[in-house]
């Protein structure tokens, strides 16, 4: 496959996003912007803007008109099964209960109804991320490792601690897991529609059910007028930090199994 991105461009993209993100976080500024109602996180949009060239338009057109994998069952499993498993285990060990969150109707139930709107708002930036990573995959034959590494690096600044000992190990673990998952999805399931829907829905569903105190997460995935959400379920404080990494472990296992059978199907077709 023809290299559609110069390696130097990838380096510039990673350095530019990291530098911008560190500066914004240092001054306690948001690492996303809102333009005419659309939310753009710099890690999702800036790398694409840096590497984009007119010569890539044919490749980008093919991404939209001829996605490789078109079945719907697997993406639904990637999204739903891990959160069902984690929730079920927590109920069995009595570490979770039905919650009584503030804004139950205004935020909770309305978010379920407004899911298609939130998804549409995030499509532009998620499309940009997918296209950037698909272009990245043309740089090396070891595209899984490259895409996974680049995914990790463009988001890594979010976890750089500005205070000694204030390291978010669970957040870093979650980023590693989702980066590996994205690398596999780009390599074996190049469908821009299902990948963007799956990645968005995995996080949207997790934080809708379990809640988040991060205003940035709530603003990007849900509504801009709220700074936090308690979640539909009340979680034991001991278990709370493990929830997202645990869910993403099961997500990765499912994607690994799917990738194995996808690879066999591809090999058998030749």
Portion of residues in helices? Answer: 55-70%
Total separate domains: 1
Instruction: Give the termini distance in whole angstroms.
Output: 17 Å
Q: Please count the helical segments.
A: 11
| Oligomeric form | single chain
Largest sheet: 2 strands, antiparallel
Number of strands: 4
- Give the integer mean of the pLDDT values: 90
Give the low-confidence spans. none
Shape: globular
Order of helices and strands: HEEHHHEHHHHHHEH
> How many whole angstroms does the radius of gyration measure?
19 Å
| Helical/strand content category | mainly alpha
Strand order across the largest sheet: 1-2
Strand content: 5-15%
Keywords, please?
mainly alpha, 270 residues, 4 strands, two-stranded antiparallel ribbon, 11 helices
Report what the structure shows.
Helix 4 packs antiparallel against helix 11. The chain has 270 residues and is mainly α. Strand 1 and strand 2 form a beta hairpin. It is built from 11 helices and 4 strands. The chain has one domain. The chain is globular, with a radius of gyration of 19 Å. The mean pLDDT is 90. The strands form 2 sheets. A two-stranded antiparallel sheet has the order 1-2.
Summarize the structure.
The protein is mostly helical. The protein is built from eleven helices and four strands. Helix content is 65%, strand content 5%.
List the helices and strands and how they pair.
Blueprint: H1 7-26, E1 32-35, E2 38-41, H2 42-51, H3 57-65, H4 73-92, E3 96-98, H5 104-113, H6 115-136, H7 143-155, H8 169-188, H9 192-210, H10 215-221, E4 233-235, H11 243-268
Antiparallel strand pairs: 1-2, 3-4
Helix pairs in contact: 1-2, 1-7, 2-6, 4-9, 4-11, 6-9, 7-8, 8-11
């Amino acid at each position: 496959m023809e290299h559609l991105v110069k390696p130097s461009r990838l380096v510039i993209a990673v350095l530019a996003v990291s530098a911008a993100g560190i500066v914004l976080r240092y001054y306690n500024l948001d690492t996303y912007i809102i333009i005419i109602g659309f939310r753009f996180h710099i890690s999702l949009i800036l790398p694409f803007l840096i590497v984009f060239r007119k010569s890539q338009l044919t490749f980008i057109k093919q991404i939209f008109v001829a996605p490789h994998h078109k079945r719907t069952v697997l993406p639904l499993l990637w999204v739903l099964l891990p959160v069902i498993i984690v929730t079920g285990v927590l109920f069995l060990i009595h570490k979770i209960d039905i919650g009584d969150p503030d804004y139950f109707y205004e935020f909770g139930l309305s978010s379920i109804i407004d899911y298609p709107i939130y998804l549409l708002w995030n499509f532009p930036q998620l499309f940009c991320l997918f296209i950037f990573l698909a272009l990245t995959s043309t740089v090396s034959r070891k595209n899984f490792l490259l895409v996974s590494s680049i995914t990790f690096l463009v988001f890594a600044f979010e976890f750089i601690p500005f205070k000694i000992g204030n390291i978010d190990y669970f957040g870093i673990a979650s980023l590693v897991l989702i980066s590996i998952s994205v690398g596999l999805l780009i390599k074996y399931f190049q469908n821009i529609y299902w990948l963007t829907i799956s990645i968005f829905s995995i996080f949207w569903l997790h934080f809708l059910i379990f809640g988040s105190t991060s205003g940035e997460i709530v603003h990007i995935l849900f509504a801009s007028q709220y700074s936090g959400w308690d979640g539909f379920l009340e979680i034991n404080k001991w278990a709370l930090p493990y929830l997202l990494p645990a869910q993403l472990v099961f997500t990765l296992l499912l994607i690994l199994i799917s990738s194995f059978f996808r690879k066999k199907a591809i090999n058998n077709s030749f």
